[in-house]
Amino acid sequence: MVCRRRTARYDSIARFYDWMLYPLEKRRIEPLRRLYVPQAEGLILDLAAGTGNNIRFYRPGASVVLVDTSRGMLDIALKKARELDRQPSMRFVQAALENMPFADDFFDTVVSIDVFCSVDNPLESILEVRRVLKPGGVILFVEHMLTGNLRKDLVLKTLNLLTVPTVGSSMTRRTGDLILSAGLEVIENEEVGGSFRFIRCTKPDVQRLKKDFSESKLPFETRSSPASDNSVIISRRGLRGEISETKDNQMRNSCNQAERS
Predict the structure, then answer these.
(1) Which domain holds residue 26?
(2) In the prediction, which pLDDT does 22 show?
(3) Strands 43-46 and 107-113, bridge-based pairing
C-alpha cells in the first residue's frame, strides 16, 4: 500500500520540486543521468521516477515503466514524456517501492538514481527490486551515501537537518551495505563525485548455478518456493503512457485486464 504520509508530502511539493533541487540537479545529478541512463536495456523499471528527469536520457523507443509513490510527481513526468514524444513507449505506475504490482523476474534493467536516500524501508525496497528483476538482469544504482570519510560524513549529517524535513532525503544511508544484504552481486562499484557512488549489480541466475552444480556432479539440493498469489504481469503491449494507481487490488485487477487484452 502506498504510504499516505509520504505520498501527501511529495504531492504537496510536486509543483516546486524541480525548482527546489535545480542547483543540485544541474551541477551533480544531471551529468550522472546523462552517463548511466542510456545504459539501460530491454524492459526497464525506473524507480521513484519523480518528475521524470531520467526520461530524456533513455534511448529512443526504450520501453520503460516509471513507478513512484506520488501521483503529483507522475503527472509532471507524464507531461515531460508527452513533450518529448516518449509517451507511447512508457507506462506510469503509482505504487510504493516496498510493494510493487509486478510479476517476479520481469524487468531486464532497473534504474535507481538518487532514490534510496528517501525510501521509508530501504532494505525491503531493495529486496522487492530484486524480486522483479530477471535472473541475470542489471540494476544501475547511482546513490549518495555515507563515504567513510569523517569530515565528509559530518557535513552530510549536518545537511540532514535541512533535507530530511523538507524533501524527506537522508544523506547518511548505508545503501552499499543494503545492496549486499539483499543478495545482489556487485559488478562495478565506484565513486562518481561527492558522496555519490555508481553501483552496477546483477541478480544471480539460480537456474544457471544449479546447472553448473549438476554438471559438476556436486550435491545440490533446492526447495521450490510457492508462487506468489498477488503477482501481476504487465505486458510490453500495455505500455501506453497512462498513470496506474495501486489501491488495494485495483491496480492488480487493471493490470491483469491489460495483459489479457
Answers:
(1) 4-260
(2) 86
(3) parallel
